[in-house]
Amino acid sequence: MNAPRADNAYQGDTYYGRAALKPSLYGWKIALYTALAGLAGGAQCIAWAAQRSARGRHLPLVRHARLLAAGIGGAAGPALLVSDLKTPARFHHMLRIWRPTSPMSIGSFVLTAFGAVSAFTALPTIAGAKSGRRADWGDRMQAPAALAGAGMMTYTAPFLAATATPLWSATPRGLAVQFAAQGVASGAAALALAARWGEEGEAGALDRIACGATVVVAAASYVNGRARKQADVAAAMQGRWRAMDAAGALLGVALPLACYALDAVRGTSRARSAAAAVGILAGSFLTRWALFEAGKTSAGRPRDYFARASARPRSPP
User: Fold this and answer.
1) CA 201 to CA 190: how far, in whole Å?
2) When comparing pLDDT for 230 and 317, which is higher?
């Protein structure tokens, strides 16, 4: 089978116009998995903060966060990941060896730990325990769940940045900040929807958390865009992927900030709060899907690869 041809505009940069890299096989399933992982991790971190700030006062919020993390991060997310692996046994094999230098190995253990502790925190809620030893047991597991949740929000960023794909490797630190902020924003948005549905009083505080995290997302996205332009790899984000990224920014940043600003001026509106939350959730997925697909384009552009390779410091012989 013939190797795929590279972009004609860059044939002079490589051997007979062939791409220097093979594009990854990651598609929408992995993009959705990373968005759900961030959401679940953010929910557990918010649950820990709520539990520490006022014990018992935020009990509905903590209960929703634990169920959300266990159901989405512990079940739906891994199902998408294993489905994309094509061979489910691959995930099991990755747990047989611990490699601290491999983001994939670290991520496998982070995902396993998160799913386990999230299940432990959710079990008392599922069993209907509101007080007593079972509820205390779930509370004691909240700190480890939040720690694993922080890993869930961020581990996929170094996993991408550690690859040779130019678009991903150009922003190793900024991508981690963006993913973490999106995780907190989407976790708070999902919990705010649940709180408003149940007529609970935590929705306003969750909206403020989502608003602050969205501001960080906007700043990180801007910095990452500048870094990609400086690394001369931004051109890979083109065509429908540029349009998708723009739609994700519009839904996940512009719309929520506008809604929260109107709430601050005119008073809280359930409709605006719901629109902001849905926009954050949709925008997080769209921007990540665009990033994955544009990364494939970047891998097929020899000039992008050689620009990144020449920019990296070489180890001494």
Assistant:
1) 15
2) 230
Residue with tokens 């918010």: 46
> Is pLDDT of 49 > 50?
yes
Token duo for residue 67: 């169920």
Q: What is the CA radius of gyration of the chain?
A: 21
How is residue 171 annotated by DSSP? -
Whether the CB-CB separation of 215 and 81 falls below 8 Å is answered with no
> Is-contact 61 311, C-beta < 8 A?
no
Give the torsion through C-alpha atoms of 55, 58, 61, 66, to 10 deg: 10
Residue 7: closest CA among 313, 281, 306, 254: 306
Torsion sign (Cα): 266, 267, 271, 275: positive
Residue count of the chain, please give it: 317
222-277 residue pLDDT tens: 999 999 988 888 888 888 999 999 999 999 999 999 999 999 999 888 899 999 99
Say how many C-beta atoms besides its own lie within 10 A of residue 209's C-beta.
Answer: 22
Q: What is the pLDDT of residue 311?
A: 58
d(CA 193, CA 132): 29
Could you count the other beta carbons within 10 Å of the beta carbon of residue 116? 14
| CA pair distance 147, 49, nearest whole angstrom | 12
Highest mean pLDDT pick, 18-27, 101-110, 159-168, 258-267: 258-267
**pTM (2 d.p.):** 0.84
